[in-house]
Write a structure and sequence with these properties.
about 775 residues, alpha+beta
Length: about 775
């Protein structure tokens, strides 16, 4: 029993130390990362040369410091070749940065600051190697206008203001000589113009934002706004933190009952000590010292074991960020001291029973002789269950508090795994397409070269692209409607309030009606729907008229409804589909809605055909497109698998602990059953069936609350990413209703059965034995 108690103290200490350190790392994670990277007060991105803006910027008296980074763009992933094969894994253009232009601190995968890049080598952000077999040290060839330059890949790097979402374009860090060579090869193929970013420290960020709003293709983002780059990463970190806390609480609850059972088991020793004159306070002191020694040993081992556990739990997040806390080890040690303190408090509370025990308890085998007066809900005479099943069920019903606690712990363990399954599936489910404000569609073209045709000053470029894709579909005998989704940031006004909103429009053939939460969708070119965030930004509501600057022209819109979306971080306005504007700055690609409601096999065949026709692999079905947009589904799947292993281990430990405690408490009853002829096999079956029943009830309870809890949590999580309400989780019936319950019941059954084998050591003569 003491060994099992030690194991749980180790478990508690592990999760306490890892959780506290992770909480510190996550809570201050972004600020810690930004400080290490020297992220400024505000940054300004220029997609094309703008001398007038830079001149006015330098004239501002609030400016303290300006650093500049210049990039050039390689439009297509096909310009990169690895092992003779062109890359097709990233969607948006790649941008190159020379190490002499680095205005911030950039870090390699080991969190070391990159001071320089050797000639003939390069670093890249994670999207460059996603879904490829590129390894550190591999050669990658850049082919531009028939000329080639081969560079050695040195590993991924972390840039505080570079997105690592799968849909983001990769950033490459190269030597200045290689940068110049690629420029000479004609590397500048920018869709929007070669980029430049200004990093500015200032005492007045509002002045810079106001200045940027006066120019096209100039976008200002404050340090606080840059935090949105890590919404998905921080979401993963907080999920891991929540899991740690739940497991830690579970371990503490089990510990409280473990100590109670241990003391109850030693009634003889306590009775004998009282018989020889030892006071209750001295006896309690002995137990407190005993558990102090066990808890100190367990906390020390747990603290050491927490270090690799912490690294494992934060691995998926730290891959994109430089997470950490300066006092992490100290706080981890403090948390272990806290575990010891909590255990001693539990011990002090549990040892109160010592006062009630008397010397006669050693003779009475710990029994008071009082009759159990409550009537049972079931009776052997009227039950159709076999005696073993009846006794197992009667045990569970006769001790609802004891078995109710076990049920709750098992239900929590299963709930954690099933929640991860639901979240991972939902964030790549076709059912949440509406949250991206995309029309009903089955195929999505995300190729930057095709989409890039719309990012110019030609307002008709969008319609031309739709027409071209429609003609191609017709030639290939594929029946369907084509649409595109475009976004443009515009300054908006209502009364005395001003806001920078993303104006979103879906254009094309037979566009499905958008999902509207309140009011109605815009039906004319001067009507608009706003998200709740946008309404709050402007102080406007349904029925109000707002104004916006479109391409230097002021337009007025009537707010007709409220909707939800991830786009524009939720600060978004939805236009009617006949609105035209030039120079959009965002897009969800080209969507195709096939006629006739085809099945998945037909959809995939059509997509394969379109990939061949358009000579691009960047055409996805809806599920894969959403997976690309969120970039978190695979991470949650990894967490889910880890949680399955942890849940199995924790469940097994709880079963062994509880069953061993029950055997100790019920030793006289087991001996009596053997005395009247009950076989060891029947007793083992009875003890095993009790845990099987509890695990089945736990599965039922967990599944009953799964969807309501899943929807509440997912709705809350999505509200952090955009302005979303009414999010419903998707579910994998096989995994949720078959695999997870079987796993819990199987682990419980095996653990209980193996532990119940200990009852074979109890003999019939133990009914009268007095130690």
């Amino acid at each position: 029993m003491n060994i099992i108690l030690l194991l749980f103290i180790i478990l508690c200490s592990m999760f306490a130390a890892a959780s506290v350190n992770n909480i510190i790392a996550v809570t201050g994670g972004i600020d810690h990362y930004f400080d290490m990277a020297n992220v400024p007060d505000i940054s300004v991105t220029l997609s094309k040369k703008n001398d007038e803006f830079e001149k006015e910027l330098n004239e501002l008296s609030s400016i303290k410091e300006i650093k500049t980074e210049k990039y050039f763009e390689i439009t297509s992933s096909k310009s990169f070749i690895h092992n003779g094969v062109r890359l097709t894994n990233f969607i948006n253009p790649a941008n190159l940065l020379a190490d002499t232009e680095m205005a911030l601190n950039y870090f390699d995968k080991d969190n070391n600051i990159i001071e320089s890049v050797e000639k003939g080598t390069f670093y890249a952000t994670i999207p460059f190697t996603d879904d490829t077999d590129i390894k550190d040290g591999d050669d990658v060839t850049v082919r531009l206008d028939g000329k080639e330059l081969t560079l050695k890949y040195m590993g991924y790097f972390k840039g505080a203001l570079f997105s690592t979402d799968p849909s983001a374009g990769p950033m490459l860090l190269v030597n200045p000589a290689d940068y110049s060579t690629l420029e000479e090869y004609g590397a500048s193929q920018s869709l929007l113009g070669d980029g430049k970013r200004l990093y500015i420290n200032t005492s007045d960020t509002d002045a810079i934002e106001e200045l940027a709003d006066q120019y096209d293709s100039v976008y200002a983002s404050t340090r606080e706004q840059h935090r949105s780059l890590y919404l998905y990463d921080m979401l993963t970190a907080y999920i891991m933190m929540a899991i740690s806390i739940v497991l830690m609480i579970t371990a503490f609850v089990v510990l409280r009952f473990t100590i109670g059972f241990t003391i109850a088991e030693e009634f003889r020793e306590i009775g004998v000590m009282k018989a020889v004159g030892i006071q209750s306070g001295s006896i309690r002191g002995m137990y407190i010292i005993k558990y102090l020694a066990i808890s100190v040993a367990g906390a020390l081992i747990g603290f050491i074991c927490s270090m690799p556990l912490q690294d494992m739990m934060m691995k998926t997040v730290s891959k994109n960020m430089v997470l950490g806390s300066e006092n992490g080890s100290v706080m981890g040690a403090v948390s272990c001291v806290g575990v010891v303190t909590v255990i001693l408090i539990f011990c002090y509370i549990c040892t109160r029973r010592v006062k009630k025990l008397s010397p006669i308890d050693a003779v009475r085998n710990g029994q008071t002789g009082e009759r159990f007066g409550r009537r049972s809900m079931i009776h052997l005479g009227s039950s159709k269950l076999p005696s073993t099943g009846f006794m197992a069920l009667n045990d569970v019903m006769s001790a609802p508090k004891r078995f109710g606690l076990i049920t709750l712990i098992f239900a929590l363990c299963m709930l954690i795994v099933t929640l991860m399954s639901n979240f991972a599936l939902t964030l790549k489910s076709e059912k949440i397409l509406w949250a991206f404000t995309i029309p009903e569609s089955e195929a999505h073209i995300m190729d930057a070269e095709m989409i890039g045709k719309m990012f110019g000053d030609d307002k008709d470029a969008c319609n031309k692209l739709i027409s071209d894709v429609s003609d191609t579909l017709e030639k290939e005998g594929i029946q369907g409607q084509v649409s595109v989704s475009l976004g443009k940031n515009c300054k908006s006004y209502y009364n005395d309030k001003t806001a920078d909103l993303t104006y979103w429009v879906n254009k094309g053939e037979n566009i499905s009606k958008p999902r509207i939460d309140e009011g109605c969708a815009p039906g004319k070119s001067d009507e608009i729907a706003l998200t709740g965030y946008a309404m709050d930004d402007l102080g406007a509501g349904i029925g109000d008229r707002i104004k916006a600057d479109f391409d230097g022209e002021e337009k007025e819109f009537l707010v007709t409804g409220k909707f939800s979306t991830f786009m524009g971080s939720g600060h978004t306005a939805l236009l009617y589909n006949d609105v035209e504007f030039a120079s959009p700055n965002s897009s969800s690609g080209i969507q195709i809605h096939f006629d006739g409601s085809p099945d998945k096999e037909t959809i995939n065949k059509n997509i394969d055909k379109l990939r061949e026709v358009f000579d691009t692999d960047k055409i996805y079905n809806t599920s894969d497109m959403i997976k690309q947009m969120t970039g978190i589904s695979d991470t949650l799947n990894t967490i889910k698998k880890m949680m399955m292993i942890l849940t199995a281990i924790v469940t097994a430990m709880i079963v062994v602990l509880m069953e061993r405690s029950f055997i100790s408490k019920e030793k006289s009853e087991i001996a009596l059953m053997k005395a009247v002829g009950v076989s060891s096999r029947s007793i083992i079956a009875q003890h095993t069936l009790r845990f099987v029943m509890v695990s089945v009830i736990a599965c039922i309870v967990s599944l009953a609350v799964l969807m309501p809890i899943s929807n509440i949590i997912m709705d809350f999580v999505c509200s952090m990413i955009g302005d979303i309400s009414g999010m419903k989780c998707d579910i994998d019936p096989i995994e949720i209703f078959v695999i997870c319950p079987i796993m819990l019941i199987l682990v419980t059954t095996i653990g209980a059965m193996l532990t119940a084998l200990y009852t074979r050591t109890i003999r019939a003569s133990d009914t009268a034995s007095i130690e």
